Amino acid sequence: MNNVPFAIAIKFPEIIPGMYDSHILRKLSSMQGQFLDEQAFTQTLSQEDLLLYEVYNFERPKLGGELDSGLSILHPGKVGQEYFMTKGHFHTVLETAEVYYCLKGKGVMVMETPEGEWDVKELTPGVVLYVPPRWAHRSVNTGNDEDLITFFVYPAIAGHNYGDIELQGFRKLILDSGNGPEIVDNPRWQAPEVRHNGS
């Protein structure tokens, strides 16, 4: 892409942009080990490798001062009692932030630091969420029948580190309690001091 101003139209109700640089499809098979109910995961995957979410990226040169952006569409559904979610990531350059603007749907952003701090913020249309540097983040669609759609912007040099999350998931999980979303502890998660000892 040339170093000139550009504009991208995101029109309702279609949402999908008319132009983009890449389109990522994340299916259930890419989420091995991330859902709490492993039996439900295996059973669901044996029936169909469901499309959980897709990302339309607007990419810029990986240079300081440049911003990457895009559109995330997280579909509704559950594995066992756990809502569909994105893989989640730290940034490779840990000291970089990200901004999300919720366009449609209902969900939450689950976040945590390498030191073990955590937070969960609600996402509804019109909400702008700032994810500070050092905070890993994962979107969760808590709606029953509607896509959770967010627009995001982050420094083009930030990169994505999925590996640390793939090891044990996030500290907190979002389950359907029968009366709405509930935040629960992830039994696989270990405190940083335990992890750093190689356990």
Question: Can you describe this structure?
Answer:
It is a single chain. By secondary structure, the chain is mainly β. The protein has a single domain (22-193), classed as Jelly Rolls, CATH 2.60.120.10. It is built from three helices and 13 strands. It has helices at residues 38-47, 163-168, 192-195; strands at residues 22-27, 51-58, 67-74, 78-79, 82-83, 98-104, 107-112, 118-123, 128-131, 136-141, 148-155, 172-176, 181-185. A hairpin with a 4-residue loop joins strand 12 and strand 13. The radius of gyration is 17 Å and the shape is globular.
Based on the model shown, name its key terms:
about 200 residues, three-stranded antiparallel beta sheet, disordered C terminus, mainly beta
